[in-house]
């Protein structure tokens, strides 16, 4: 295991730089630091989602996702290092198939709304998409493995599906978009 933080206020970042896991220093506005921050924010939002009433299997999955996101953040903080494994992407694929099978097919766009758990899952989904965009931008500058990008892509899909699952927990449903154009054509 690498170094553990023994103090939080080190003051080494007062000059606008931060240390990576390989002991290099980069600007706090570096694309790598930006991507790490987006992943950290996503993990924090999932932590907030876990404060809600959730089905036990979904809760267990989300806790595991938090650990995988920590692995992803660690991988981003050590250029060239691999922490997020391909089986983490496969786990999301399996969860997507399982939860999608429980849901009716979408007939219309849905709004990011419903109960609090569903709405927070949608917030997580949008932050996952932003983290994915940050990873794509970093990948144009630095060589990255494809698993981290795939993981965030699948995770955003899963969070959308979970929002639909959470809206149905107590007999609810999706909140459908009321398109004026579609209303006129009916």
TrEMBL record:
Could you tell me which NCBIfam families the record lists for this protein? PduO_Nterm
Q: Which PANTHER family match?
A: CORRINOID ADENOSYLTRANSFERASE, CORRINOID ADENOSYLTRANSFERASE MMAB
User: Assembly and interactions?
Assistant: Homotrimer.
EC number in record: 2.5.1.-
- Sorted alphabetically, which Gene3D superfamilies does this protein's record hold? Cobalamin adenosyltransferase-like
What is the originating organism of this protein? Ramlibacter agri
The UniProt keywords, alphabetically, are: ATP-binding, Cobalamin biosynthesis, Nucleotide-binding, Transferase
Is Transferase found in the keyword set?
A: yes
Which reaction(s) does its UniProt entry say it catalyses?
Answer: 2 cob(II)alamin + AH2 + 2 ATP = 2 adenosylcob(III)alamin + 2 triphosphate + A + 2 H(+)
Protein's recorded name: Cobalamin adenosyltransferase
Q: What class of enzyme is it?
A: transferase
- Note the Pfam families from the entry: Cob_adeno_trans
Question: What's an example of a GO molecular-function annotation for this chain?
Answer: corrinoid adenosyltransferase activity
> Which top-level group of life is the source organism from?
Bacteria
> Its Gene Ontology biological processes?
cobalamin biosynthetic process
Where is the segment annotated Disordered?
1-23
């Amino acid at each position: 295991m690498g170094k553990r933080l023994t103090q939080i206020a080190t003051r080494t970042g007062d000059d606008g730089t931060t240390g990576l896991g390989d002991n290099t220093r980069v600007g706090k506005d570096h694309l790598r630091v930006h991507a790490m921050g987006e992943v950290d924010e996503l993990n924090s939002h999932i932590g907030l989602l876990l404060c809600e009433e959730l089905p036990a299997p979904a809760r267990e999955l989300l806790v595991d996702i938090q650990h995988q996101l920590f692995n992803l953040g660690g991988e981003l903080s050590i250029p060239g290092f691999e922490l997020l494994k391909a089986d983490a992407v496969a786990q999301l694929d399996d969860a997507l198939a399982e939860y999608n099978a429980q849901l009716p097919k979408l007939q219309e766009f849905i709004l990011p709304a419903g109960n609090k758990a569903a709405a927070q899952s949608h917030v997580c989904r949008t932050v996952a998409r932003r983290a994915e965009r940050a990873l794509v931008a970093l990948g144009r500058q630095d060589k990255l493995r494809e698993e981290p990008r795939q993981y965030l892509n699948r995770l955003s899909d899963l969070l959308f599906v979970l929002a639909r699952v959470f809206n149905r927990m107590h007999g609810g449903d999706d909140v459908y978009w009321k398109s004026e154009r579609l209303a006129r054509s009916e």
